[in-house]
Amino acid sequence: MNLQIIPKIKHTHSNNFFLLAGPCAIEGEDMALRIAEQVVKITDSLEIPYIFKGSFKKANRSRIDSFTGIGDEKALKILRKVSETFDVPTVTDIHEVSDAAMAAEYVDVLQIPAFLVRQTDLVVAAANTGKVVNLKKGQFMSPESMKHAVTKVTDCGNPQVMVTDRGTMFGYQDMIVDFRGIPTMREFAPTVLDVTHSLQQPNQSSGVTGGRPDMIATIARAGIATGVDGIFIETHFDPANAKSDGANMLDLKYLEKLLTDLTAIRKTIIKL
After folding, report:
1. CA-based angle 265:90:109, to the nearest 5?
2. Which is nearest to 242 in space by CA: 253, 231, 234?
3. Residue 15 forms part of a structural domain
4. What is the CATH classification number for the domain harbouring 108?
5. Among 84, 169, 216, 231, whose Cα sits 20 to 30 Å from the Cα of 10?
6. What predicted TM-score, i.e. pTM, was given to this entire model?
7. Where's the DAHP synthetase I/KDSA domain (predicted)?
8. Average confidence (pLDDT) over 18-42
9. What pLDDT digit, counting tens, does each position of 163-215 carry?
């Protein structure tokens, strides 16, 4: 994948990692713009190529009463406004074949959720839009097996594909990152490390997913040291009251320090 193919992406010549970051879900216009403004300011300062992330709907929920979104078109229009306001590309995840063409009208990158990455019809629908496709590695899949998911995209005539590791199931209620998989997947496509989802603690008896945000910096630093091309972080200015995945999101006030540290590590690795 050529990063420069993504509309509005900046700092592609900085030799830095690229960043996909934003809230788990679009909760409203004000919150999305507030988060985007802060992240754009930080990434411009550090010369990090940036893609704003926000889910226009949440289809994978533990309970039927969990937050799923504010309305598909309403959320997608907010993603478009973020892009137009801050001149940045955007990414959102899709869950059904019909989502692909709809979301492609509003965003620059289509993301296939980890639980759905083996769904051929969904992957093909995303590929056929011509948009960049981000394939989240299934928690149940080996790094080697992601080659076949990548091939589904490229066989559609779309070479613009990347892979994101988001941890592997470790027992029933924990995730673990096997950093040996990073160089393996980089042989197939540019590889991103989803730091925050890798620290989820799913399947809690309450029906609300837990997490370990205190370990975000540790996992992110290890990812950069391992040579990932990009970092994925969900962030919010009030994680405790976020409507989705608040337990594992990074408080926005800590993002600048983290990205500054990661940029320094990246520069050191490149010099080696």
Report:
1. 90
2. 234
3. no
4. 3.20.20.70
5. 216
6. 0.94
7. 9-260
8. 97
9. 999 999 888 888 899 999 999 999 999 999 999 988 877 655 565 566 788 89
